[in-house]
Amino acid sequence: MLELEIIDLIIRRGESTVVGKLNLKVTKGERVGVFGANGSGKTTLLDAICRQVHFSAGKIYWQGRPLANMSTVQVARLGVARSFQFPQILPNLTVLENLISANTPISKDGIFRALFFRSPPEAEPRSQAYLARCGLGIYARDLAGTLSFGQRRLLEIGCVLARRPQLVLLDEPSAGLSDEAKRHVSSAIGEMTMKRVPMIIVEHDLNFLAQHCDVIYQLEDGQLVKQQGY
Amino acid sequence: MEYVLFVAILLAITASIAGSLNLSMGLGGIPLLGHFAFPLVGAYVIALSSARLGLPSLLGLCLAPWVGALAAILFLWPCSNLNPERVALATIAIALLMQSVLDNWTQVTNGPYGIDNVPSLAFGGSPLTNNAIAAFTYALLTILGLNRIRHSQFGRLLTAHRDNPLLLAFWGRRSSVLVSRAVLLSAAWAAIGGALYATFIGYVSPNSYTFNSLLLVVVMVFLGGRGTLWGPALGATVVTLLFEMMRFLGLPSSISAQIQLILCGIILLALVVVRPHGILGRRLQS
Question: pTM of whole model > 0.90?
Fold first, then answer.
């Protein structure tokens, strides 16, 4: 079943064309890997899906719905979750609070609930379990801003998982990580694979992509070129 | 004894108004520099309803937060902007406009002369006791409410808005909705403070809460530690006691007012250099 479809996507930045007439189809549970040189437009492609950048031409459909006129917030509410090249977390909340914040449904954001109800405790065991799995359990009550780069990456991916996503976009998830941290990232990807969540993984590390993706493309001159043998 | 109670009531009201600013500016990082308009609105609501219309002062106290929140609607558009300079300037401008309306709408507000004989809250006891009960209850509710908010999803998302608004969007949250809620609550709560102040002092004028008053509240919040539970209360205690001690120096009031402003400047400068996160605050992570 086709989930994400990108048709003739063109993104221009000033005079230069970053992405030119790009086409991509992602089906349910499919894991797509994209690699390419620095500045080849890998992150821009993810930004376009999240509606962080304006695209000059083309169409993007998610589960049959066009994303062109949607905002980042609307796309996120459709279940699109992403990680970033530089891990994005909430540095002044604890590690556990980061996960709980990502985990809690929007219906529980209100002031009335804040003033008159205690926070839902059910979010905590789930988050604690993830932290224990990725070795962050002992840091649960520490401020997320005190974590190392690799730990921040694991926390960020944990927040992506916590959102129960329908589509996951990972931007260089293994960059700068130790082997052990990479194993934790792999297990998180495995968890999403089990749930048949489609994924687009942008990476420099071809081996990492080969290990986790069903199909790999190289982004070259703004076009996706399918890599044979993967 | 009466003097101590008088200072304690003033302190409770001021600390709670600082608490309301702590919600928007401390937790949410919204530079709401027009915040001084909200206590002023609350003070005028109770003064007009009880001193002019003869309604019970308790009814005026109940009306104050609603009118405060209504006034805050004017602030929502600039506040939903993520550019802090614009938010700060636009909210000051709106607050000054509101102050100017109160200053010039003489038929209703009596202009710069203000409204006197604002009746004290009446629910049994002497006026001083009533005011003390109301002010201390208000302060207690401020602490309890702030504590609840800090540990709620709303509070966590407010912190997220302060630290990483882009991430909020990727989590499907609209910053504008979050900011609107924080500003409305902050305004309503500050309006109650203004109303309590008016019934306590018995008088309100456009100069009861000015930009200088806001500076004082900002000093309290930053001195104690913005975003912390007890920080604004501690900041308010230190500043209020410092100013009260100045009374014993026997200086003329015009000079002591100037010295108060100078002291505020010195405290702010010292904070920036020595302890930017305040006495109880922790260094913000980036």
Answer: no
